[in-house]
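Hi there. Long-time user, first ticket. I'm pasting a complex I've been working with (about 799 residues overall). I'd like to know whether the download I got is complete or cut off, because the file seemed smaller than I expected. Thanks.
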Amino acid sequence: MATEILMPALSPTMEEGTLAKWLVKEGDTVSSGDILAEIETDKATMEFEAVDEGTVGKLLVAEGTEGVAVNTPIAVLVEEGEDVPSAAAGQGEGGERDPAPAEEPGPREVHAQPAAAPASPAQAATSVSEPEVPEGTEMKSTTVREALRDAMAEEMRRDEEVFLMGEEVAEYQGAYKISQGLLDEFGARRVIDTPITEHGFAGIGVGAAFAGLKPIVEFMTFNFAMQAIDQIINSAAKTLYMSGGQMGAPIVFRGPNGAAARVAAQHSQDYAAWYASIPGLKVVQPYSAADAKGLLKTAIRDPNPVVFLENEILYGKSFDVPVLDDWTVPFGKAKIWREGTDVTLVSWGIGMTYALEAADALSQDGVSAEVIDLRTLRPLDMETVIRSVQKTNRCVTVEEGFPVASMSDHIAARIMQEAFDYLDAPVLSCTGKDVPMPYAANLEKLALTSVKEVLDAVKAVTYR
Amino acid sequence: MAARRTTTKRGAKTSNASKEELLTYYREMLLIRRFEEKAGQLYGMGLIGGFCHLYIGQEAVVVGLEASAEEGDSRITTYRDHGHMLACGMDPKGVMAELTGRIDGYSKGKGGSMHMFSKEKRFYGGHGIVGANVPLGAGIAFADKYRGNDRVTFTYFGDGAANQGQVYETYNMAELWDLPVIFVIENNKYAMGTSVQRSTKSPSLWERGAAYGIEGEEVDGMDVLAVKAAGERAVEYVRAGKGPYILEVMTYRYRGHSMSDPAKYRTRDEVQKIREERDAIEQVRKRLLDGDATEDELKAIDKEIKEIVNEAAEFAKESPEPPIDELYTDIYMDA
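Hi, the file is complete. Here it is re-exported in full:
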C-alpha cells in the first residue's frame, strides 16, 4: 500500500518550511533511517529521515519549493512491485496524520497566516503611524529574528565593550538562530558560548557590567532565567541604588518569553509582570521587527539593566523595518498602531496579534478601535493610554500573561485612578488563564487569550 | 584541557617580615577590630540598625591578602564586609556613616552595612545574598581579561556560601575561560549557627576546586604573614594568566553571626581558647615585642587607632540623614 510522506514539523512553532533538497529520487529504495531530504525551517536546516521502508514512488514537491505547509504530502512511498498511484489517489490515504491540516486553523488560530494571504492587518497598519521614521525612508521587509540579529551586530560594531554570551549563541548560531553570523563577524572573544548554567553566567554578566562592559546575556528562554532571577533582580537591578549611584549594571538580558507552541507548563510562562514590578530594571516587550531592532539597540546603549522579552512565535514574522544607518526606538513611548474612537485596545508583544486582528474585525462591524502597543512596560507610557481613554471612554487590555497581579491589572488600576471620570465601562482584561500551560492542543488554545475574547470584551464595554 | 594537579602548600611561617611591615599589619588589623567594636557599641545604642555582621577575629584574612594586591586589582565580598573596606583603604568615616544610615556614607545611607561600594578603590560590594557575589567577582575578572589587562579580582565568601550551587557554576566557567580570579573562602567554621561539620561530609572546601581543575591551598588565617605569603602565590599564579586559584583561609569569628545571634551553637571556652592562643593581632604584637618594638610604640598606635575610630563614630552620628528626595534618586542612570 502506498504511504504518503508528509512535510514534517521540525520545531514547536514551525508552520511551513522550504524543501531545500531531495536526497533520493523516484525509484530509489529506502529503509527506515535513510535521509530523504533537507528541510529548511526559519531556524535551521534539518535532515529528514524515512520512517518506513519502500520505494520512492513519486516526489510530489520539487526541491527548492518554499512555504511548504506542515503536513503537506511531499512524496509517496510504495511497496515493492506496487504501482505508483496518481497524486489524487494518494490524497487522504495511508497517512497517520490528518491529511489536510494546513487548510485548517493552526493550533493557535490567531497566528496562522495562509502563505498566500494578503498582508496581515498588522502590516497594513504599519504605515499608518510611524512618526519616528523620516518621510521617504526606504522600508525593508525583515523578520523579527533578523531585526534582533541586526541590532546586536550594529551595536557590536559600534562599541567594542558590547559582547554576547549565552547557551548556543556562538557555534550553534543561536538556539533560535537569533545570533546567526555573529561568531563569524566578531569572534569567540565577543560571542561566547556558555555551559548550561544560567545562574552562574547571569552573575558573571552582571559582574562584567559592574566593571563597565556592556554584556548581552541571552537566555535560551526566559523560563530558564528563573534560575538566574536573583542575579537579575538583587544584583543587577538594585546595585545602583545600594551604591548611592556609584555603580550600576549596563546589561541586557534577552531571549524568548511566554508561550511558544505545545511546549507546556515549564516552557510557556510570560514574565512581563514579574520584571515590570522591579524598580531598577527596564522592561521591553516588542511586537514588530522595527521595534525589536530599534528597542534592542536602545537597550544595549542604556546604562541600566534591561530585560528584553522576545517571543518565539514572532521571530519568523516579517514587518517593514526602516532602512536607516542608526534606527533606534526610545523607551517609554507607546506606539499607536491604529487610531480609533470607540474603544482603546492596549497591548504589547504577541498580545498585539490578537488586538490588531480584533480591531480589524471590529472595523468591519462599524466599531472603531484604537490600538496601542506599549512596547516598553517599564518605563510605561500611561500618558498615551490615558489620552486615548479620554477619547474613547473604554479600554480592553490584551496579553498572554497570567491574570493575577498582571500588567493588565496595573494598567486598569492606573486608568481608574487617572481617568475614572472618563470611563463609560469598567476596563476589561484579556489574559492567559489562571492555569499552568497545558500541553494538549485544544487546552493550550483555551489557556491563551483569543481574538474572540477580545471581541467579546469590546462588546461588553461598548454595551453592544 | 587536562585537569591540573591540585597541590597544597600550607602557609609556612614567614619570620623575615620587617618591623615596618609588621607595624603596618598591626595598625590595619587593629583598625578593623576597634572599628567593629565601635560599630557593635553604636548598634547597642540604636544608632545602627538592621543586620550588622562584625569581622572581629578575621582581621588577618583581608589585611594579609590586601598586602598581596596591587593597584588596579579588585575585590568583592559578602555581607561581612566592613573589614574588607577598611583594608582596601576606604575611609572609616564613610563606612561608619553608612552604618548609621547617613548621607555621608558610601551609599548615601541607602545601602547599609551589607551594601557598600567604592568605585575608586575597586571594591565591588558588599552583597547580601550568600554566594551571589561569587559569579559577580568572576564577572569582574572576565572584564579584566576581556580588556587584556593583568588585574586580578579577590572574590571573598564564607564556608556557608561554599555550599551554594552558583559557586560551582562559577568555578566551572572561571577555569574554562582562565579568568583572573582568586576565590577566597573565609572559613570561620560556622555558617550562621551551622558548623562546617554539620553542613558537609567533604569539609576541605578548597579541595572541591580539584573537580574543576582549579589549584588551591589551605591557609592559616590567624597568621597574617602566612595569609600574605599565600596571597602572593595566588596573585602570581593568576596574574600570569593561568586561571583562577582558591585560598581556603582558616579563620574564626569571635562575635555572633550578626548582632542578634546569641551564639549558643558553640561554647564560650571554644571562643576563649582561640582568642588566647591564636589571635591574629596578638601574634603580630608578640612578634613585634620579640623584635625591637617597644610597648610605648604599640601604645601610641593603639591611641592613634582609637582616635580614628572615635572620629569616625562622631562623624557618623553628626552626618545628617539623607534628604527625603534621595528616596527617588539612583534608581536609574540617565540614558
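A couple of notes from our side: The longest strand of chain A covers residues 16-22. The domain at 334-461 of chain A is CATH 3.40.50.920 (Rossmann fold).
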